[in-house]
Amino acid sequence: MHAGRTLNQALRVRDFRLLLAGSFLSMFGRQMLSVAIGWELYLRTGSALVLGGIGLAQVLPIIVLFLPSGYIADRYSRRYVVIGSQVVLALASLYLAFLSYQHGSLWLIYACLAIMGGAQSFNGPASSALVAQVVPESAYENAMTWRSSVTQLSAVLGPTTGGLLIGILQSATFVYVLCAITSIIFIALLVPMHVNPQKKLASTKRTLASLVEGMRFLGKAQVLLAAITLDLFAVLLGGATTLLPIYAQNILHVGPIGLGWMQAASSIGAICTALILASRPPFKHAGYTLLLAVTGFGVATIIFGLSRSFWLSLLMLFLLGACDNISVVIRSTLLLVRTPDEMRGRVSAVSSLFISSSNQLGGFESGLVAQLIGPVLSVVTGGIGTILVVLLIAFLWPEMRHLGTLREEKQAQSS
Known about the structure:
Layout: H1 3-8, H2 14-45, H3 48-75, H4 78-102, H5 106-130, H6 140-169, H7 173-190, H8 207-220, H9 222-237, H10 244-251, H11 255-278, H12 286-306, H13 310-337, H14 344-373, H15 375-396, H16 398-401, H17 406-414
Helix pairs in contact: 2-3, 2-6, 2-7, 3-5, 3-8, 3-14, 4-5, 4-7, 5-14, 6-11, 6-13, 8-14, 9-12, 9-13, 9-14, 9-15, 10-11, 11-13, 12-13, 12-15, 14-15
């Protein structure tokens, strides 16, 4: 297939462009909010543990709701599930703006973040599965590459914009308002979308059995389980980004604008990688590529933890994003290609639980360890742990080492 045609395969679909634009805006707003809430709470408390609590507050609802969220994404219209989730995210962002303006209670802020985590637990599986309803199957890998690209682009522009606004206005309040506006625009883009009918669950199927069916499916799909487990523990142990406010303030001394660039650096690396992946043929040795990418993630984490140079730190964060993007594209494409449509919501919910819990619990773990032994040792030991996880996964799941092209895997499964 011609490189240009491969690059634009998913983008030629109008409804995918609407979904992609809305997803970008919503994620852009959440990235702005992320840098704002981290900076504001660290200035107020000076506590690494409080930073870790941000992630914990958001992940607990995801752990509680991942089964019903996947069931609802398969039982009801995924577009309406995303719309409802964005309404909740918009209202919660506005309330955060009010709390910021009033210097409200830390516990109320955590409660608001928990509500946002609950909304995200429904938004994630539904929006991920919605991709398969707006693009043909041949464009799945290209679509997920572009989806990863805009995720990372939002993670570049969001933190830098949020850091710049905080630096200029000396307040995070307006950032929360902008986050609410981005969710509202996403809703407006979803309304005119046309999506193909989804294969809904039979009403006679027992609810409890339907809830856990996604977990049973992953238990049988060894390659999927290995890919998700690898991502979970790698991000759980290598959660250096949670401690970026400490590095910006106390180690590298670059302030809120520098913090914004540090948070954006990994996404710049991911965007560069995603553009390369979007224009190249499908992976021929996806398993080894994934294992090498996560190993590179661990090495870059170690070097970042030891660095005292702002530019070296930016380079390592760039490499973190590049390696992570390869992992995201392979894992997300496997989920679409190898999961039946009527189960995509539940399987995506289980995947979201793994990924979100690794991100948020990884942030809590990094904050807790940094509080006990310092931020540098926390980051370095996390990077070492990531490399050890790669070796363990490669040993326990030989299917991962033998994983070839993603399309061949699908054909092998169906034969």
